[in-house]
Structures are given as structure tokens and as C-alpha cells.
Amino acid sequence: MPSKWVCIILNLIVCVIASEEDEATRAYIKITEFDYEDTCLSTAEAQWEFINSPSNEKLSAWEEKLISYAAFKNTEKNIIANISRADINDESLQYKYDVAEKIGDALLDIEDFKTLVHFSGITELMRLSTIHKGILNGYTKQDVERILSRDSNIRNRSTVWTTWHQQLAPLVNNFSTILTFADKAAKENGAKDVSEYWELLSGYSDGYDKIRYKWNRIIDLHKKILKFAITIMTKKYNINMNDTIPAYLLGSLQGTDWIPISIDITPYPDLIYSIKKNLWKRKLLGKSLYKTASAMSAQILSQVPQAEFWEKSHFNQQCPSKLINFCKNAVLRVSTCFEPTISNYLSAHKNVGKIVFNQLSVEDTPILNTANRYSGLEESVSELFGILAASPAWLNYTHIIDDSSDNDQNLITSLMITALNTLPQIVYYISVDMWRINAVKKNITNSEDLISSWWEYREEYEGLDSNGMNLPTFLNDDYITSNKPYLPKIIGTMLAFQLYEYLMESTEVRYDSIVRKHMNIDFLKMIQQGSADDWMKVIDKYLEIDEISPDSLLSFFLPLEDFIDELDDDFQFKAITAKESELDKLEKEIIMEMNVPLTTTSTTTATPKHVNTKPKVPDAKSSNKQNDKRSDTNTVANSSKNLESKSSIYTPEKKPENHNPLQSVTTEVPFDKSLLDIQDTDKKPKISSNKAVWAVGAVLIATIIICIIAIFGRQRCRKVPKNRRYV
Ligand SMILES: *[C@@H]1O[C@H](CO)[C@@H](O)[C@H](O)[C@H]1NC(C)=O
Ligand SMILES: *[C@@H]1O[C@H](CO)[C@@H](O)[C@H](O)[C@H]1NC(C)=O
Ligand SMILES: *[C@@H]1O[C@H](CO)[C@@H](O)[C@H](O)[C@H]1NC(C)=O
Ligand SMILES: *[C@@H]1O[C@H](CO)[C@@H](O)[C@H](O)[C@H]1NC(C)=O
Ligand SMILES: *[C@@H]1O[C@H](CO)[C@@H](O)[C@H](O)[C@H]1NC(C)=O
Ligand SMILES: *[C@@H]1O[C@H](CO)[C@@H](O)[C@H](O)[C@H]1NC(C)=O
Ligand SMILES: *[C@@H]1O[C@H](CO)[C@@H](O)[C@H](O)[C@H]1NC(C)=O
């Protein structure tokens, strides 16, 4: 017997020597990730509470969570710092190490961080609350945007636009301080200036220099769309515009998504009208709209949002929708309005893109990236879903365009929708970041100067003007008030067209089906790994895309460019106001109809599976809106469960949670296995508290078990292949 023990000890020593330093670090970072998930989860819960019933109390609770989250990140950073980066061999692990070390704004001085969080919280609360000012008493942001997209009286548009932005204007003095924090955070993260810092957070080095160059290539295309819009708007409203459009005319407060006015800016208003009408007729309200989008993700990525998403999301809140990541097990929820507008249709698809992106990557634990970085890759998958949603193939599949309509007209309409959605946004993102970088660099702290430079940038990049009202409309943007970079969205949008070209093997618009032959395994692997790793490297590895380029975007829009070039200058603008009121009537009817079944219990019993799928929506919103005349849209709040209507398109039923199409091709490695190889506890940093006990205990037990198996079974300790997780 003693000889056996000698053998065990000998084998133990062999195991220790054979183990790699990386495995200890890997296990250690894994534990850090679990702690991150817990802290992130409770922060997300506070945020979810806040956005669904915004109030000062909920805001304070959320702020506290954000502050303790930042404190937590700092603690973890200090612990991780005791591991030497030079000892890590694996590149992915080095990447995770860096993300845990350069934690972004959380590195700010605690007082500065609190000021930043408070400012972004207060502005968010104001944006989410009903406004109490003059003619807009009792209106929400969504109501205001509805007027901006519908009211044909441009004086009304101008008034509500101005009134809304004036409400936020007093906070502009605080904003100049907030902007200086971007510079401070850059220094803390070891970046030389704001651009380098934001490039770091986006995982795209030299990003802004490259963007300046790429922007030059998009200018012409954007100018063409802009000129087309100016021509039409000039005719429709009979006002003089030479080179720029007043921002209030663009259908929303920010003027960055021109979809709300797509019925104006199109050569085929009838087609846009029928799309709008069909979205209502097909009753793609709230949950049904997301079911449509999930049918798309089932086709492209064999993945649909998991059950919890459907149960816990709120489908009749405010728009623009908010997607919250709960950080654990890829749980995400959306809080959105129910109206099936084209904008919502697109954003539902984009949100589902993000949801499945996160679900696919759950095994690689992307939490450090989720917490400390802004992923260009996630944005690109999301935008890809938006592009596909507007393709004639998908619009036909979902019966949103009439089968009878002309293919060429469908093509132009589809391209126009994508153009109006992506181009104004991309130039807005560029203009916002360039403006902020310039303001920080030139130390512009005076509010007047900030505002006037803001409009100069918007004019230069976007071709918008303030119509003489120099208002700080940037306060209406949460990326700006929370110092978040737009760079990931800029590159994400361009990359989306490259992904489109990769998947479809061309940049041609799809008429027949959005699915090519069989599912693309490389694409899935790219998503799975790219979320937790340096995504630029991963897209290079799997898709051989080694640079973000606007080429795919430009060739995608080529048919539209040609079409606009060929339009003669006296293109006739067709006013279709009569149809707009028809649409209003239809909307009211559908809302009435959707409310009817609620009073009769028969439908509820007929479809019992719908009864408990949604928690009763708090009626906070309608209570303080007694005095407005939009009660027709509020009534639907009573019948939230009806928002999931039956539609005849194929909607995949709930699949097993976390169904992973990759499981067949990758070897799944459960977490505990990564602990099996840690032996060298002495070399490990002295780690505090129960974490240490946990790790050491697991290591010891695992080692002993391995060795026993090895000795009595195969007579030796076998090392698990090093890169088994990164097949
Ligand atoms: C990290 O190492 C430093 C000194 O090298 C030590 O003071 C500190 O306590 C260590 N931190 C932790 C969390 O182990
Ligand atoms: C704005 O600044 C003032 C004075 O510095 C401060 O009292 C106030 O709390 C700040 N408001 C916000 C929303 O940050
Ligand atoms: C402009 O707004 C006022 C008040 O909201 C409303 O009474 C009027 O009908 C609107 N004008 C038009 C042309 O819609
Ligand atoms: C635009 O038109 C106005 C008059 O409507 C004129 O004063 C102004 O100079 C023009 N701007 C440009 C850039 O042409
Ligand atoms: C920026 O300007 C403010 C006053 O406008 C000044 O107090 C501050 O020192 C300046 N900062 C830098 C870095 O020049
Ligand atoms: C549109 O879909 C229908 C079936 O839903 C199909 O018969 C038709 O061919 C499709 N149209 C095009 C242009 O693919
Ligand atoms: C909605 O519910 C409220 C109270 O629960 C009720 O007063 C109102 O009449 C309902 N509206 C409709 C259209 O059912």
C-alpha cells in the first residue's frame, strides 16, 4: 500500500509541473467573470425598474447600483493586476486580461463618476417623463415624435420640436463638465486622448482616422439622398432650402432616422403607404412584431429569443425601444411600444439580432466585453438584421408588401428604406463623435460655443440646420449625455453590409429568400467567439474580413444611386395626405378591435397559453396623460396580452433555451474542466476571501481525482488540449 501513495504523490508532482500558468489565470478570470455577472445583473435589474416606471426613487436606486458596480470593477482590476500579463501565453486570455484592467469610465475619480452617472440619469429621466411645458403639457417623447412625423402643419412641428428641446436646455451648463470627464477617463485608461480611448473601448485602433477617410467615400451617396430629400421637401412645404434641411422637418427629435418621413422621401409613396397599412392590417403589434423578427433569426442563425425574453419583456411601453442585457445566461428584455411603424419593424429585427448574438455567445462568457467595451460586432449583426428586414424577400415573406407590386419598384422602395434608416444615422454618429473629440481637444467649455459648434458639425456632416434656433439638441441623446462613443455603431453599420455580402455572396438585394443554401458555420463561430474576444481578429479568422470598408455599402446602394441620378429635376411630388388620414382611421380601428376580445372571455379561454405570458403592465403612463387627446393609443394598454395577435406568417415556437446550433461542431467544455488543470497555487496571486478557498479547494479535489483516475486507469495524467475552448 505505501508504494501506491508514493505513486500518487509522484504523479501529483508530475501534474503540477506539467500544468500551465495559463490555466491558473484562466480559472481565475473565469471566477472574476462570474462575479461580474452577478453585479451586472443587479445593476440591470435596477435599470429595468427605472425605464419601465421612471421616477426619482428608481433613478437613485439605479445610480447607486452603477456606482457600486464601478467600485466592484476597480476592486477586480486591482486583484487581477497581481497577475503578470507577461506570463499569459494565450492571446484570448491576454485580451480578457486587458479588458479587466482597462475598465473605461469606472476608472474615473469616484466624485467625477458620481457626477457623470447623476447627469446621465437625470437627463434620461427627463427624456422618459411626460413634459409639463406650455402646449406640450402631458406629452411624452413618443407623442412629440408622433406629431413630428404626422402633423402636416410645419409650424406645429417647429413648435413642438423647439418646446421639447428647450425643456432640456438648462442642463447644457453641466454638460461641459461631463465632456471633460471623457478626457480624464482617457488618461486613467492609459490612452493619450479621447479618440484613442474610444478606439480602445470599441476594439478598433486608429478608428477615427480611418473613419475620416471612409467618410469621404460615403459623402457623395449621402449628398444624393439629401438633395433628393431637399427637392421633395421644398415642393411639399413650399419653403426655401438651399443646402440644408431644418432638423425639425425630419420626423423625429434628433432627425437621425428618416424612416418616419419615408412616405415623403420616396419615388413610390404608394408602396410605402401599403407597407405602413399592411403592418397594421397584419396586426404586427408588440409581441407579434418581435415574433416576425424571431422568424428571421430562426432562418439565418437557427436561434430564437429564449422563453424568458417573451415572458418578461414589456411590449407596450415607450418608443424608442430599450433593450436591456441582464448579463447572465444571455437573458435580455425589451421595453418597447406596440405600434407597428416601419421604424419599429426595423428596430424589432435589430433588437432580435442583438438578442441572438448574445445567446449564441453565452458559452464564451462575453461578460467582460459586455461590461467594459462597446462591441462593433454586435452592432453589425444587429444592423444586418435591419438590412434583411427591409429586403423585398422578407417583406414578401411576411406579406408586408403586396405580391402584386412591381419588382423594380419594390427594389427601389426597399433600398430607400435601408438608405433612410442607415445613412442619416451613420453621418449623425460621425458628426457627434467628431464634434465631441474636437470640443475636448480645443477645450471648448463655454455652452454657447458648444452649441454653435454642434450645429456647425451637423451642418457639415449631416446637412441639417437648426433653423435659427440654437438649441443644445444633443442633450436628447443618451450616448452623448453618458459619454458613450458612437464609433462602434459607425463601424458596425459599415461592417453590416460586409456581412451581408459575405452571407449572400453578393451585394444584390434579395427577392426570393434571405437564406442561402445552408447555414454558414463559420459565421456562427465568428459570432460565438467574437463576442468575448478581440472581434477584429475573429472576423479576420473566420470571414477573412481584415478591414472595415464602405465598399459593400456603396455597391449595395448602387441601384438606388443610379435611379436617383436618372430622375429628372422636375420629379413630381405626389401629396398623399388623404391616404395618411385613411391610415389614421385604420390604426384606430385595429386598436379598437384589439381591445374587443378582452371583454369577452372566450378568446382568453381559447388561447390559454397567452394568459400568463405577460405581467400586467403598470398603467403609470396613461394616468398622467388624462388631458391629451391620444387616448385611442392608450386604450390598448389594457389589453396587453392581445398585442400578441395571430398572424399567418411562420413563427417558430419556443425552442429549448440556449439551443446552440454550434453544439454539433464544437466540443462543449463545461466550466469545471477549466479548473482541473490548476495546480500551481503558489505562483498564483494571493487572492482574497472565499474566492481563494473556492479555487484552491476545487483545484485540489480535481487534481486528486484526476490523478487517481490516471494512476488506476490510464497510468498517467493526461493534459486536456490547451486550446480546446477555442476550436
Ligand atoms: C497585490 O499585490 C500587492 C503587492 O504586490 C499587494 O499589496 C496587494 O495586497 C495584492 N492585492 C491582492 C488583492 O492580493
Ligand atoms: C448641474 O450642476 C449643478 C451645479 O454644479 C448641480 O448642483 C446639479 O446637481 C447638476 N445637475 C445635474 C443633473 O447633474
Ligand atoms: C396644430 O396644432 C394645434 C394644437 O395642437 C391643432 O389644433 C391644429 O389642428 C394643428 N394644426 C394642424 C394643421 O394640424
Ligand atoms: C441660402 O439662402 C439664403 C436666402 O434664402 C441666403 O441668404 C443664403 O446665403 C443661402 N446660403 C447658401 C449657402 O447658399
Ligand atoms: C480649459 O478651459 C478652462 C476655462 O475655459 C480652464 O479653466 C481650463 O484650465 C482649461 N483646460 C485646459 C486643459 O486647458
Ligand atoms: C412572394 O411570396 C409568395 C408566397 O408567399 C410567392 O409565391 C411569390 O413568388 C413571392 N414573390 C417573389 C417576388 O418572390
Ligand atoms: C382600461 O382600464 C381602465 C381601468 O382599468 C378603465 O377605466 C378603462 O375604461 C379601460 N379602457 C378600455 C378601453 O377598456
Residue share in helices?
A: 55-70%
**Which whole number gives the mean pLDDT?**
81
Bound molecules: 2-acetamido-2-deoxy-beta-D-glucopyranose
Unreliable residue stretches: 598-689, 713-727
Based on the coordinates given, report the CATH architecture of the domain at 175-285 and 340-566: Orthogonal Bundle
Terminal-residue CA separation: 42 Å
Strand order of the largest sheet: 1-4
Named CATH topology of the domain at 175-285 and 340-566: Neurolysin, domain 3
As a percent range, the share of strand residues is under 5%
Q: By CATH's scheme, which homologous superfamily of the domain at 175-285 and 340-566 applies?
A: Oligoendopeptidase f, C-terminal domain
Structural class: mainly alpha
Shape: globular
Largest sheet: 2 strands, parallel
- Rounded to the nearest angstrom, the radius of gyration is 27 Å
CATH class of the domain at 175-285 and 340-566: Mainly Alpha
**Overall strand count:** 4
Transmembrane segments: 692-712
Keywords: Disulfide bond, Glycoprotein, Membrane, Metal-binding, Signal, Transmembrane, Transmembrane helix, Zinc
GO molecular function: metallopeptidase activity; peptidyl-dipeptidase activity
Binding site for Zn(2+) 2: 379
